[in-house]
Amino acid sequence: MQKTSARLLALLSLLQARRDWPGALLAERLRVSPRTVRRDVERLRELGYPIATFKGPDGGYRLDAGTQLPPLLFDDDQAVALAVALQLATTSGVGVEEAAVRALHTVRQVMPVRLRHRIDGLQVTAVERPGTPQVSGDVLMALGAAVHAREVLRFTYDPQDAPRRVEPYHLVARGGRWYLVAWDLDRDDWRVFRADRISPRTPTGPRFSPRQLPGGDVAAFVTGRFRGSDGTVGWPCRGEVILHLPAAVVSRHTHDGVVEELGPDRCRLVLGSWSWTALAAAFGRFDADIEVVGPADLRDAFALLAHRYATAARTAPAPEQGGGRTG
After folding, report:
1. Residues near 293 by Cβ (< 8 Å), separated by ≥ 6?
2. Residue 67 — very low, low, confident or very high, per pLDDT cuts 50/70/90?
3. Which backbone phi and psi does 117 adopt, to 5 degrees?
4. Helix (H, G, I), strand (E, B) or coil at 170
């Protein structure tokens, strides 16, 4: 049988793993009697852990929230995951950088030596995008509270426009920025708002029943909106060309395209974009001859860009005369 201290830690770990634990199941997992479980629960309560008892055929215990944060118990994988998350939190854009550094220092101090070595060997540097706007933690808390309570949110988005009224659906972090996905009541459509531009107004509006998000997947919906589609993951414009370059060279510079080798110096490339001209420009960034396979919209976009580039070349200022290279 386990010593009391080890058994208490095992019991605490189980209580943290799920909300409700039938007493008989806890006794079975710990290989002790239900009476011993009751005694151990009382010991944990004396240490400050708010463990509630629930009645019923499968009566048991749950670890509730208390007025103070008691000591927490993490297994090795959880401790490593927490340390990595705290390092990444220093660039979360919500003003918690200093608190994250202090929390990481606290967690590291109480780690066993074996875990401390793992953490010290896993130094992560999260690089922010230049000019990424910071979002107030209070704003994110207000948005999150409205999402959770399912209450209509009123906020100022553009100082020149009237306040917006939305049914908030979900908060999303993407590319170093925070966004709110919501149903716009005045525009009768789904919208994605930048959280750093939102100034919430109080009080919030009435409660609402959540609508069905197109596709049902908030990550796919946001990705689709940024690609200019109706909320699906795919690009609204997709085309195919043959590039006079080795497939290995093209693959190094293609993130979400499909590259097929056709020979030592030729390959097929399929890409997507939010518009046909943007797609043609994406193909044109490769320093190689291009054969358009299709569709016709892509061919027209190449013709349009060719005209624009030719016009830009003709209107370019003439180079200064008399200059020479110095070295």
Report:
1. 239, 240, 241, 242, 268
2. very low
3. -65, -40
4. strand
Single out the residue of 158, 161, 95 nearest to residue 132, CA to CA: 95
Classify the phi-psi angles of 150: left when phi > 0, otherwise alpha if psi is within -120 to 50, otherwise beta: left
pTM score above 0.70: no
Residue pair 196/143 in contact by the 8 Å Cβ criterion: no
Alpha-helical (H) ranges within 124-260 are 137-149, 218-226, 247-252
- pLDDT tens for 143-154 read 999 999 999 999
Are 139 and 195 spatial neighbours (Cβ–Cβ below 8 Å)? yes
Q: How far apart are CA 178 and CA 195, in angstroms?
A: 5
Question: Which residue type sits at 15?
Answer: L
**Distance in angstroms (rounded) separating the CA atoms of residues 286 and 244:** 9
CA gap 87, 81 in Å, rounded:
10
In this structure, the dihedral spanned by the alpha carbons of residues 189, 192, 194 and 197, taken in order and rounded to 10 degrees, is: 0
Contact (Cβ atoms closer than 8 angstroms) between residue 74 and residue 111: no
Locate 30 and state its tokens: 């710990």
111 versus 8: the higher-pLDDT residue is 8
At 127 the three-state DSSP class reads: coil
Q: How far is CA 321 from CA 62, 136, 315, 324, 325, in A?
A: 83, 54, 17, 9, 12
End-to-end CA distance of the chain: 83
Residue 60 backbone dihedrals phi, psi, to 5 degrees:
-170, -140
